[in-house]
Amino acid sequence: MCLEETVTAARFMTKVVLINQGDIPHYRIPVYGYLSECLEWDGFGLTVLSCGTESRMPHAVRFDHRKMPLSFFSITKLFLSVKPDVVVLWVNLKNLYLFPVIVLAKFLRVKVVYWGHGRDLQDKGARIKNLVYFLEHWLCDAIILYGEHLKKYVATAFHTKVFVANNTLNLMPRYLDLGSKERILAKYNVKTKKNVICSGRMQKRKRIDDLLKAFELIGNPEFGLILVGPDPEGILEGTRGENVYKLGPVYGDDILDLLSASTVYCLPGAVGLSIVDAFYCGLPFITEEGEETAERMYLKHGVNGFVVSKGDVGQLAGKLKLLLENDLLRANFSRAATDEIMVNGHIDLMCKGFREVLSFVR
């Protein structure tokens, strides 16, 4: 395509501005890059607004990113400059610019799309907050949800404008041989060959204490427990135990290598996008009953992982022990985990949801 044709094509593109509250999380950088490329093929030009990107960013930014302090005035200035056709809001209610921006978009005849869970899943019964969500959904021209099961948090009257883009990550097929696994474990001074791993921010709501107690109950010196990620709440302070490895933050390809070299993934509470990484690396996933999240939809009990009773440390230990010892069962779960994420968790499915909603409002 010549320069003149490129300029002409850009001129007739539907301009989409996605507002990402705060800094863009490191895992969303490759997601936005892939999404931007996919949307461009269908005539949508994506611009992402944010305050910046997370520190220690392992990924290159390959999309139109506008870094600025997010406020009603800064967003207004950008709207008047870019003249978007659609604005997608990945913005929590706590951000005071949210509703003024929606009103501004309505005034400028810019279509407005909500993107998220539908409501605050950690505070689902908050009546006033849910009324505010209802108002937001009513004002928006379309709604993108992280999963089909979240439609119950949107009023039935709005279901005609609800679309689903399964929440996931941008992950490409990879292979790690046994020799590589051994080298990776040695790199982190992990001496056990079979290991339970848990990665991400160590937080109380994730019930890491249950995992530590369950691992202690197993009591097998041939098994290890690998804990990866920052510990902002001091959950792991004073944690001791044979074959318990506290590695701190590990990002990018390094964390995928470490997951691929592990045996089973366990996160007792608050399952999030870590299940995508775990399944992508072929790890069966074990969690407890409790908080509802979008990403729990990927876990199929008895197929690619287990869900045990909340707080039942003995049951948690039993399922961990079963998958660590039963190589055939673990291999079956591993194949099912990979199949699940490469189908229902594939980023192309997420992009399909975005294309459908943008075509709807265009």
List keywords for this structure.
single chain; 362 residues; alpha/beta; Rossmann fold; 2 domains; 7-stranded parallel sheet; 6-stranded parallel sheet; 12 helices
How would you briefly describe this protein structure?
This protein has twelve helices and 15 strands. The protein has helices at residues 3-11, 28-41, 72-82, 98-107, 127-139, 178-187, 208-218, 252-260, 274-280, 313-325, 327-343, 347-361; strands at 14-20, 23-24, 44-50, 52-53, 64-67, 86-90, 111-116, 142-145, 162-164, 194-199, 223-228, 244-248, 264-266, 285-288, 305-308.
Structural commentary:
The chain has helices at 3-11, 28-41, 72-82, 98-107, 127-139, 178-187, 208-218, 252-260, 274-280, 313-325, 327-343, 347-361; strands spanning 14-20, 23-24, 44-50, 52-53, 64-67, 86-90, 111-116, 142-145, 162-164, 194-199, 223-228, 244-248, 264-266, 285-288, 305-308. The longest helix has 17 residues, at 327-343. The radius of gyration is 22 Å and the shape is elongated. The protein is of the alpha/beta class and 362 residues long. The model is unreliable at 1-9 (pLDDT under 50). It has twelve helices and 15 strands. It has a seven-stranded parallel β-sheet, sandwiched between helices. Strands 12-11-10-13-14-15 form a six-stranded parallel β-sheet, sandwiched between helices. The chain folds into two domains: 3-168 and 346-361, Rossmann fold; 178-343, Rossmann fold (3-Layer(aba) Sandwich), CATH 3.40.50.2000. Helix 4 links the parallel strand 6 and strand 7.
